[in-house]
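Recap for those who missed Tuesday's class. We walked through two folding examples back to back. For each one, the amino acid string is listed first and its predicted structure tokens come directly after. Nothing is annotated here on purpose, so try labeling regions yourself before you check the end of the notes.
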Amino acid sequence: MKLTFWGAAQQVTGSMFLLESDDYRILIDCGSDFDLDETARKTRYEEQKGVFPFEASLINTVLLTHAHIDHSGNIPNLFKEGFEGRVVCTEPTLALTSLLLKDAANLHQKRLNARNSSSGKKKSKKSREVPKDYYVEKNVNEALENFVPVSFGQRYRIADHISITFYPAGHLLGAAHIVVEVMENGERKRIAFSGDIGRSNYPLLIDPQEIPQVDYLVCESTYGNRLHENQGSPVDALAEVIKRTCVDIPGRLIIPSFSVGRTQALLYTLNKIYLNHSFPSIKVFSDSPLAYSSTKVYQRYVRMLNKEARNFQEENDMLFDFDNLIYLENAEASRAISNYNEPCIIISSSGMVQGGRVEHHVEANIGNPYATILMIGYASEGTLGWRLLNGQETISIRGKQLPVLANIEKIDVFSGHGDQNDLIKFVKMQDPEKLKRIFLVHGEQQSMADFQTIVNKFGYDAVEVPKRGQVFEL
């Protein structure tokens, strides 16, 4: 058995691992790599002669841990380059992946239209060249026809000598740890892929579930050297911010939030706050079509949410809808709320304030000392969200240099990633005497190095931090 690390190797994004046994090849995740800029991505694709560093047609099966685009985003390209197999995932992951891939395809189409628009000028062939990793909705639909949904906890045989089992990982609706069992030369080998590990007591989601003893463990390490700062309840943390920013003063609260997962946790928490606190009637504007569609998926799969959410649904009929909530359906409605002068809450994507409608809201409110921008998740270096969190006095938005007069705050109770303690708990499910090797992926290099040191102290000696393209014989 051979394992090659083609993504999320000494970086956070682009999860993609190739597992080979005899002539059978399994790709675990097939995510978009956001660590490369357009020039570096183009150079890599030219060197590889395609989006992938391997022959796509030789892959037999894809196993998808969850829907987030850094795990799923390159699946349509895999089919474009010749893959003809199945993509195996849970039913909610299929539903959310469909939304995310179509959203990505729509973005690609808009960029293609912009490239092809001459604006009265003749463009060179090079300037009109289509990036190799662009796909449109037709490509997405062709890929989705080959998705196969499976249930948690059920063992499935995907080849004569290979079986797989999905276990709930928390983190996102439908997200899974995947255990692969391979029979080679009369010996059974087990390898687990963590996907993204969720945290306990997260709004809506069940806690990450225990997986059986394995021989090899591929473990994410996003929070390998960090603990969550806010350990209280999301309801208390968010209610306190709303009171300070919208009640004590007639202010406006802007919350950049990822559309899939994070926004649903926010809306559910706001629903609980408005039911249990005597707050004034503060309007909540949810400004993301993708978030609206994703929220309907969460409502559809309420049976797969945690017990508290199921009980809330039974008692109150709706998890997310409440009297003060308004979904903004189009860009015109989004722009119009700049003229709304009462205290309000605006939830909009993206969570890192990098693209999306939220840039408009930040631009419109960054000079308002009565406005607060609340960051609720990770923002990678260089993004507008990162610059806000690092206290820059002026920021550039859409070519304008603007002074930062709004208040910038941060809470991490809505982070969907387990922190260092959660990662340690996941690793310690495995007996160090029986676990042959751990591979750390999906993290910044310092986070991986620090987590490797911690894991070593617990008696796990064989811990690897693979480089991209590194191959291991198992």
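Example two. Treat it independently of the first, because the proteins are unrelated.
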Amino acid sequence: MQKRSFWFKIVPVVLGLALIVSGCAASPAPTNQSSATTSKPVKIGVLPIEDNLPFYVAEKDGLYTKEGVQVQLVNFASAVERDTALQAGQIDGEVADLVAVALLKKSGTDVKIAAIGLGATPQEGRFAILSSPKSNIRDLNALKGATLGISENSIIDYVSDQLLTDKGIPLSEVKKMSIPKMPVRLDMLLSDQINAACLPDPLAALAQAKGAHLVADDTYRNISQTVFLFRSQSIQDNPAGIKAAVRVYGLAGQALSDHPDQYHSLFLEKAQVPADIQQTYKTPTFSKLQLPTQDEIDSVMKWMVAKKLIPQAYSYNDLVDGTLLPQ
């Protein structure tokens, strides 16, 4: 997606959050002489979304052991719970979006981006604006005066604004309604309670399958990415483990891209792809590990400052640690 994980606002730390640990690789016996052996586990918060699929591929293929790193995948039901755990130091890293990264930093949790998850190319992790099944809206110009369901101050909000601005649609002419819970937003769209909604795949694909009309999507240019990020303190405390976890994420992503059919059933299970589209929805592919560009980060920062979500833009170096990518 997550260009999607990325869809919820950050909240203050909530004490007493219960963590559910989904699995931990066995104590490493690295087969690669260049691999770093680490005794300290790396805890990664995961959601049931496609951006996190490489973590499960790595488990299935034994890549954590091969690369000499212990990884604990900690399941969360929402991005809010996951981000709260990160703020509390209960997990080391996660895959989120650039809006979430800046909000984490604003909240006092210093984090660094290690690599892009989905979104190195425009085709990875699609977002789409769709109109309701009974609507006559077929293009962005027809959204003037219409109600567009979004999640306010999130990556959904950012993508919606970029899609509209790219086509010269004044944002003031579209009535945005904040509907943070995506299943509710989808239901309101399909029941014609709102004229249109912005959704990420696979929910966008599900909406289309159920009769919603595609108005626009972001496959024509890179509007957003999900990113693999870590607490700066975790990087300082366990640099070898963090680097190995990033390396494994990249290896698993390439395995997915080379043999998507081999992991399709795992994808359907872990990403909770809706049953209505399981036969047609393709396994995502991942580009080789790379960092977001200066322009991509600057665009999000400019939007967040204009929305008064942050007092001033964070610089590229404030948000990115280029030393964590495999050399």
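Answers for example two:
Residues 20-121+224-324 form a domain with the D-Maltodextrin-Binding Protein; domain 2 fold (CATH 3.40.190.10).
Residues 239-258 form the longest helix (20 residues).
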